[in-house]
Amino acid sequence: MVTGRKKPSPQPAVSREIEHLVIDASYIAVAHTYLAFAAFVSALFLGCALHYKKIVKNGVAGYPEEWFPSVSATIGDWYPERNIFQILIAMTSGPRFALVFLQYLLTRTPDSALPSWVLFAGIVRTLACGGWVFITSNDDHDVHDVLMVLYIVCNVPWMLGGIMCTPVKHVQARRRRRIVTIAFFGSIIPMVYFFIQHKVRRIPGAYTQYSFFEWGLILLDVLYDTISEIDFKVSNLQIALGISLNSSTRRNNIRPLPPSGGTEVTSAPDNEPEAGSEPPSSLAISKAKPTTASDGPDSEARIRGHALRGLQHSICSMSEFRSVLSFTADVYLSYLFWSIVTALLTTLFYFSVWELGLSGAEAALFVYLSPVLLGIVPLRNWAVTRWGRVTLRTLSLVGLVAYKLDDPLERLWAVIGANVTVLLSQVADWTAGEDTRQGFLLGTGLILSSLSKHANHSNNPVWPMLNEETGGYNKTGMAVAVCALLELATRPSEPPGETKPNEEKSVSAAVKTTVVHNWLPSSIALGSLFFTLHCMLTDSSTVIAWSWTGYKDGQPKGPLPHLHGSLTLIAQSLGLIVPALLPASTSSALLTHPFWFAYGCVSAFVMYRFRDWTGFVGGLNFAIFCMSILPSVLSQNSVGQGIKAGRRYFVAFLVAILFYLANVWTVAYAFVPGGVYLRERTDLVLIAQFAALSLAFCWPSKVLTKPRPCLHLPRATRTRIHTLLGLLSLTSVLVTLCHWPVMGPRPYKPGTGVFNAGIWTVHFGIDNAGHDSQHRIRDVIRDMQLDVVGLLETDLHRTVYGNRDLTRVIAKELGYYVDLGPGPNLHTWGAVLLSKFPIIHSHHHLLPSPAGELAPAIVAILDVYGTEITVVVSHNGQEEDLLDRELQSKELARIMAASYPRPVVFLGYVVTKPLAARPAPYDILVNDGLVYDIDPHDLDRWCEYILYRGLYRTAYARVSRGIVTDTELQIGQFVLPKHGFELTNQTEESRLLRSWKEDLPEDHWFPMEYYGNEHQGGVNGHYYHVFNTPLYYKLPEDALV
């Protein structure tokens, strides 16, 4: 059926103006902000006013220990705050969805999918917010937590994507988004820490601290969305109600924002509505107030120009994103380089520990010479290609997978192979560099490695000596490494955004001016610097260990590793910022000037010569110096090398190897050939380091004069380095806050007068399987409830030990005062004192050792239940050095006798038979030191001894070593006499009266779980041995305790 065209109306057309309502889009962001804040603030106010003690109470504690409510308890537990909050949040959902869609319309481009992903994340984030708001923890705790975690996870793409999609000219919005994002994700770290303190360790008051960070996240989250108001205002984004969107309307009413951020003209409909007809209800969004424009060539040209600028903006944003991604991947690959290189010495040292001398595994050290292979031109040319880099880096991951190998020898071979490939790849990258970017990447990777150790109790989380049971995050490290390698494999040939056209000439000039005619001095300097960085700056607490001397008047005399290690990391970052911050010519002149070298020498002298805070300040300046010259020294070796790359880096790493050996020889002189020449001569090694470093400086002498390297760095890379170093410094402070003790150490049996003291030689923190033993040691100390512990062979701040701090896990998780004992610059095997009681005063001794190894001792006065007790922890020399043992024993006896009549507990490694006559140590210590043996009838002893005076001894236990070490743990239990009363009846017969444990209060019992033998019973291979049970002793009948 065919119909005709409708006839026009005979009445004249009546003109009627179309009415519409225009709303500024920024009002949407404002409405969202006020509604969100009103919801949370009203809930908090009403909750505190009506149900304060109920909402601060949790499963661990209530008021007054907990005094600030969590978000979950505030919004979801009680009427009417819960209902008012949910009503206001429901009202917020409209502006929230509108804000998400408006942000997408503002940033979308036809050539980028990133705004779409941000839109998707924003929608999921909003729905997840509704989920945890309306499904409270009381309704379903698991669902509430899952939705909360999903909400936080969605904030990652929402916030980071929002930053990258922010229009170029919206500088203020981008800056504010960065600040809020950094604060948001930085707050998650302490929040998780305090949640663990509450949930796992069940510490009263921890949930209140957690709540502060939880409310902080809410505030930051709302503030981030508030920033959209700035975008909408700058873009003049408006919403118009009542504009026709019929088929005749132009489709370009909604268009992406031009990069200029200017206004945009929206054309009028092609056809006016018929007279007498109602315009359909509709909504339009525009970047300017609706105006009329003709559809002419000028209008089309403007549209094409805006589209072109939008495309350029999109390409620029994606290029910047890819450049940032490439830079991040390179930093992580540098981190893996340091992780794998430092893992070699710790892996091979396992064999030296068990041999107590050279085992042959030390030959693996010469793997560091593998860069000599780059002298083979085809190999070097392949190594600098994309697939050469990817292949070598992928092969190096075997060093991370090695944690799965149970056999220490197989693990060593895997780490050797990983070092060969990672060194070839890293050094090839150095040779291909045309600016100082590689030096900065090497430095940031070092700081990231040190930061990861600071956060992970002084252990690198991807070392093969760690696994899931010992604090490793190997799988996480592997996953991130795979992502970095995928980025490297798909990276454009030239990293986008690194060098601008107007910078190419300066780069070429820099290359020409950095050529060093004599390669040998710069190679020697690089080898010395590489060793120095490895020796002193791969752990934030090494400099602290050099300066530590103990306690005075109940306070530490110097910095503490877990609290002040972040200062070392900040100093490293400052040092690396110096060459990045200064202009290239100024930086080159300053950092190669003899005055800067003099600054480094003075810093090293203060660090070596002085102690406590003065020495630590010297160490911080030493860190600044070493990090500041890294780009300069590396650039002298990395430009214009050609086929000389092999010999350059062969010499550099040969110098480093010589320093590694010299560093060990200063302390292990008794076990290595030629050790007598470097015995206790760290000063000579340090002087040699600086003599080698001096070759990288420009001296007036004609012999050493060479062109200064021009430290050119592209502007984009410079900005990223500044940002990254700032983030690393901030993270180090946040890690320190997470490690900050919530409460001070407390004895296991307060108010009883009973305390347990133990002595254990822990074999440098490496167990029988070659893994870190901190967690196993912690478990035994916790189970045995040791209030005072002496740990021996604990000075791990050397390259071969991994620059570790053996006390970090125990001190943080169990709560102890720590005295680290003599530092690595005093050339001992180390001794540590852990105490649940305040350390009033402590002093470190180097016992007389004319022939053998230096013997350390810690003499401390503890406040034990209000009574001052002297505790001595010592590691005496070996049986081969008879004179040393005699002199050391006399000195220890003098110290103990001088403290009379104060009570004494001696915890030492003595190497003597029980009851042995002079000149054996036993008789000297017991008789001259005015102390008693814990049980002179125990004749099956050789190394470890516990002696005491002025206390009642009520128990004595010997616990097998398990796989932790090669030496047992000995424990003595003591009781203080009642305050104001003296000891009674201290005859030998009275002191040695045995007792059944049932005849003593349960406070005196050792754990029943440790009864067993090597075949059954016990805990993790530890059990009571020798007597197969702890020995218990009766108190004198008239004793008052």
Overall description:
With 1041 residues, this protein is α+β, with helices and mostly antiparallel strands. An eight-stranded mixed beta sheet has the order 8-9-7-6-17-16-19-18, with no helix packed on it. Strand 11 (855-864) and strand 12 (867-875) form a beta hairpin. It is globular, with a radius of gyration of 35 Å. The protein starts with 20 loop residues before the first strand and ends in an 8-residue tail after the last strand. 49% of the residues are buried. Mean pLDDT is 83; it is low at 1-18, 244-284, 286-295 and 495-516.
Mean pLDDT, nearest integer? 83
Indicate the overall shape.
globular
Main sheet record: 8 strands, mixed
In terms of quaternary structure, the protein is single chain
Structural class: alpha+beta
Content of β-strand: 5-15%
Helix share, percent: 40-55%
Low-pLDDT segments = 1-18, 244-284, 286-295, 495-516
Strand order of the largest sheet: 8-9-7-6-17-16-19-18
User: How many DSSP-defined strands?
Assistant: 19
Rg is 35 Å
Distance between the termini: 115 Å
Number of helices: 30
